[in-house]
Design brief:
The protein has 370 residues and is an alpha+beta fold. The protein folds into two domains: 8-112; 129-368, Aminoglycoside 3'-phosphotransferase, Chain: A, domain 2, CATH 3.90.1200.10. The protein has helices at 8-18, 75-88, 131-141, 145-162, 169-181, 186-191, 202-220, 265-273, 275-280, 287-306, 311-327, 337-353; strands spanning 23-29, 43-51, 57-65, 102-104, 110-112, 129-130, 227-228, 238-240, 252-254, 262-263. This is Aminoglycoside phosphotransferase domain-containing protein.
């Protein structure tokens, strides 16, 4: 992690870039409130006085942000705050101008991002096929030995991953808060629904959201459950390598770890398993033909391997979140209204019961005799 305080010569270089020919005359730390009433601020500001060649003085404020529990605990949060300030300050009359924005490099230099546009990320490439393609095939053709072995491999990975327990009450509350309040969380998903979605009218979504808010207060007190998590463990983020020399077909690579890598294990387990009934919806016989077996197998294996039966108690809000994703026409525009109704109904019943009972998924397919 790069230092949050730059070297003095780095501030000197910034001063010379902002005020050509200038040199730093003094650097003074600023507190949140010189009068003493306000104890905490979000930033770590320095007032930098620059002396120009002619003797005149100019001043600017150099700001870094302190990690804290107000949504600034991750480096990405603090980057967001700096970039938003840079984009925003110039829009208001009588507001101080944002002169530049950037990052402190590992060696203490200042790297300007003032001229940057959108941000990008380069990653490695993973050869293979998405697990979602496996589930489409299982829905059409049934499950075979390799499908069961792959489900086992995913569950075993989660058991090992979640065995890393973390002690960080701030991270736990952040994870629970983001489950609801993040733009990709429950509130953001509900806001993505148009008002006329069949089987998902605003009144139903509001009631589901309110149930989840009540569940948040139950989750909030369970900080001891904090574990290392992937954060987006669904079938479109798993790439399996095909069987071949040195490969038995169960080797996989993960994509797009999210949400800080810390949370309730229920997040990952639900993100994976809810897709077994989802891929069976709209395919008569697919549930009984193999996807039910994968659902039951995954839950039984996770509970046995982890010993974490409390995951069934914390799962309801995560199931509601994932059901809202799968039922949302922005993500799955061709999902029929009856399938949407069944998904949301499963989430509602699970929230009302206060725990996930894996056998309840069979009710989605009762009309098929499953």
């Amino acid at each position: 992690m790069a230092p949050t305080i730059p070297r003095a010569e780095a501030l000197g270089a910034l001063a010379a870039a902002l005020f050509p020919g200038g040199a730093v005359a003094s650097i003074e730390p600023l507190g949140p409130d010189a009068g003493g009433d306000k104890a905490v601020g979000y930033g770590r500001p320095l007032r930098v006085t620059v002396r120009l060649p002619g003797g005149e003085e100019r001043r600017f404020v150099f700001r870094t942000q302190a990690p804290n529990e107000f949504g600034h605990d991750r480096r990405a949060d603090r980057a967001e705050g700096a970039l938003l300030a840079y984009d925003l300050f110039g829009r208001f009359p009588r507001h101080v101008r944002a002169l530049d924005v950037g990052a402190v490099a590992a060696d203490g230099r200042l790297v300007s991002l003032g001229g940057a546009g959108e941000f990008w990320l380069a990653t490695g490439w993973a050869d293979g096929t998405l697990y979602a393609d496996d589930l489409r095939r299982v829905a059409a053709q049934g499950a075979g030995p390799l499908d069961r072995a792959r489900a086992d491999a995913l569950v075993d990975y989660l058991v090992r991953l979640h065995a890393e327990k973390l002690e960080d009450p701030v991270a736990w509350r952040r994870a629970v808060r983001d489950l609801l309040g993040h733009g990709e969380g429950i509130f953001g998903l509900v806001d993505a629904y148009p008002p006329d979605v069949p089987a998902a009218p605003p009144a139903r979504l509001r009631a589901l959201e309110e149930r989840c808010l009540a569940a948040r207060w139950a989750l909030r007190a369970r900080a001891g459950r904090l574990a290392r998590t992937h954060g987006d463990f669904h079938p479109f983020n798993v790439v399996f390598r095909p069987p071949g020399p040195g490969e038995d077909g169960t080797g996989f690579t993960l994509l797009d770890a999210s949400r800080g890598g810390a949370g309730d294990p229920a997040d990952d387990v639900v993100a994976l398993t809810v897709n077994y009934p989802f891929f069976a919806l709209g395919h008569p016989g697919a549930w009984a033909g193999g996807l039910r077996d994968l659902w039951r197998r995954a839950w039984e294996r996770y509970l046995a391997g982890s010993g974490d039966r409390a995951v069934l108690e914390t799962a309801p809000a995560y199931l509601a979140w994932r059901a809202l994703v799968l039922a949302c026409p922005r993500f799955y525009p061709h999902l029929p209204a009856p399938a949407r109704d069944r998904l949301l109904g499963l989430a509602e019943r699970t929230l009302d019961a206060g725990r996930l009972e894996p056998g309840e998924a069979d009710a989605l397919f009762a009309a098929e005799g499953a």
